Amino acid sequence: MVTLKEYIHQLHYFVQGYEYYLIFLFTIAVIIGIIDAASIALFYPMISEGFNIQADKIPLYNIIESVSSLIPIGSTFVHIGLLFVILTATSLCLQLGYWKIAFIFQREIIIKTKTAIFSKIESNDYKFFVDSKQGDLINLFNQSPLYVQNSYDRLLSLCADLMTSFIVIVMLFVISPGGLLLVIIGGGIFYLIINSIGKNISEKLGNLQIASGQSENKVINEYISGIKPIKATHASEHWKEQYIHALKVYWDRFAEFMFIQRIPIIAINSLFYITIGVIVLLLYMFYADNFILVIPVLGTFAAGMMKILPKAMNMGTYKLELKNYLPHLMKVYGTLQEERYHKILNGSITCNEIESDIVFENVNFSYGHAKILTDVSIQIRRGEMTALVGSSGSGKSTIVNLMLRLYDPSSGKIILNGRDLKEYDINSYRDIIGYVSQDPFIFNATIRENIFFGHDYSETELIEASKLAHAHEFIMNFPDGFDTIVGDQGVTLSGGEKQRIVIARAMIRRPDLLILDEATSALDNISEAAVQEAIDQVSKECTTLVIAHRLTTIRNADKIIVIEKGKIVEEGSHDELLGIKGIYWIMITNKNDTETLQ
User: What local confidence, expressed as pLDDT, does residue 484 receive?
Assistant: First the structure.
């Protein structure tokens, strides 16, 4: 359970830098409360004058009479009536101004919060994305920040209502302490009712919303991402059942919880009339002989109650809603404060080029309790093509991840240009890398934007890169050429076309280090031959690291490194490794398709 101190701390965290909005809004709320209280106080002299009742003058009466007399026309009743209209209109204008500023404040908060979430996620280590569910992340971006904004919306409403109610109550106390006591007793009973009914229900509802939203996002994301195999194998029913289950997590309890929360709201109108009735009866009992003299007090209290009642109703609702929003607030706050995924420290040295071999010195790497690499020492020679081969799970992709600094070694070093790779600025180092994975990432934009990938290049560079990747011809066959929209995940493209666009993305960077992780896996034989020729050409101009299962991809490599169970077992050229008839030779000769390494 979050304490009040922790809750206030978390609320303040999101408004840092915008405190002046809160001060300004609080000042306006106080002014609105004073004006509303003053307008209600006018009912006393208005009723007294209107019904010609010689009632006792309230303490504020002389002030009201002095101000209203400044109006040059009409009787005292007209003066007071016009002052009431002026005060009410002023209150309206101030309330409009209050909420205009409040919504601007909320806009700034939600933009700041969403930006902070993205910046935090972007700065997290790659391990964060491995550990997190996609649906959870989508929910964190789309849903939770809105509840943070809603929290401030309700708090601002609560602040305005509290200020007005407090000042009106002070005014009613000045008019009749006894009458106010009755109001307070009635309000206290209402508070006890709503507090006992609503305790913990809204917070539970908020937690269920998070759990249900995350489950829904996960199912929908998986369903859309895998729609082709799902449709092709008639597996939709499984995802439909998961989606219905995710809905039931929240909505099965929704009706029950919402009904319980609605009881006080339904009952409060009746409570108001009961309270008014009790007050009238009590006043009649005490002032039976001079009941007409208490009519101004009764009218003023009725007006005050009419002002306070909706706000009291709202306060109960706000409290329940704030408890509902609390889990979302805590989730966003917890994410922004999370420090577990900042283990990859950035260096300070700019890396402009690769000037020497890349050397792994006794590198070990573990993921959790599982050891992936054991005492790996290899040399990736500058300007040459080095290939990694081995069975699935042998550690090839882990070496690539270490090269990309998605992870750091558990022990040992990776030496580049005579320095530990950790000493270099990560972004400057990654700027000289071209990377192509076996799962081509294509986003819903033009082919041009997919190749540029957030950077700026000339048209000449674009055409050269697409030709190198053997992509120019099929791109030009589209009516819009490079400006063709490819759809979500490149749905309008074949697997080979998507892969060649990603290869063009790597080629256009003219990298010093080219990393190809199964880069030709999705290509047909004709496209692969053309792309392989391009890879062979580009690899002459840079240092290249290749992971491949196809023999054609690596047979021309300057050096082939065989890795098994996280250990280096063989090194040499294609012919050298065949000559020693070791594991590499077995990997080739034991396959029916001699062009495939596994």
Answer: 93
